[in-house]
Amino acid sequence: MARPKTSLADRVASRSHREDTHLIWDGPTYRGKPHLHNFGNPARVLLNLVDQPRISIKTECHDPRCIEPKHWRVIIERDHKYLDIPKPIWRDPRDDTAAQFTDQELEEIDYYVQEGTTTEDELKAAGCYSAEFIAEVLTRITARATASTKA
Ligand SMILES: [Zn+2]
């Protein structure tokens, strides 16, 4: 069944408005939180998470009506009971660089980033990866190292 992606995003857009960097929800709420009938939090629609029950989101914005995707933290749940279940594949719509890679490539990028110690030479030795692929892995490893130093 074809999913009416644009009309769903349109529904969210028509019920929200910009306030500075925030996207304020004008539609109905449930328990004080923005709520779109049948879909739950409209921020999930904007984050491409409608079919991702194992990925949850948490607001990082002071305004409870805000559904701006960049003001939400995305949490990919770890399944402690069934560790063999692969991590859900999700394309972050906020990430412009991800658009140039296939799902398979993003999975491989994620793998090398988790390793954390991969060098350019090791990536080349592992296969014929493109310069863009190698650059992306190294950029993410550096970003990760910087983030963990700050924490
Ligand atoms: Zn906000």
Structure description:
The chain has a two-stranded antiparallel ribbon. The protein has a two-stranded antiparallel sheet with strand order 3-4. Strands 5-6 form a two-stranded antiparallel ribbon. The chain contains 5 helices and 6 strands. The longest helix has 20 residues, at 131-150. The chain has 2 domains: 5-76, no CATH class; 97-150. The mean pLDDT is 85. A hairpin with a 2-residue loop joins strand 1 and strand 2 (22-25). It has helices spanning 5-14, 42-46, 103-115, 120-126, 131-150; strands at 16-19, 22-25, 29-30, 33-34, 55-59, 72-76. Helix 3 packs across helix 5. With 151 residues, the chain is α+β, with helices and mostly antiparallel strands. 36% of the residues lie in helices and 15% in strands. Zinc ion (ZN) binds next to loops.
Summarize it.
This protein is of the alpha+beta class. The protein contains five helices and six strands, in the order H-E-E-E-E-H-E-E-H-H-H. It has two domains: 5-76, no CATH class; 97-150.
**Main beta sheet: strand number and arrangement?**
2 strands, antiparallel
How many domains?
A: 2
Q: Compute the gyration radius: what is it?
A: 18 Å
In the predicted model, the low-confidence regions spanning at least 5 consecutive residues are none
Individual helix count:
5
Taking the alpha carbons of the first and last residues, their distance comes to 44 Å
Arithmetic mean of pLDDT: 85
Structure ligands:
zinc ion
Across the major sheet, the strand order is: 1-2
Helix content: 25-40%
Instruction: Tell me the total number of β-strands.
Output: 6
SSE-based structural type: alpha+beta
- Please tell me what the overall shape is: elongated
Order of helices and strands: HEEEEHEEHHH
What percent of residues are in strands?
A: 5-15%
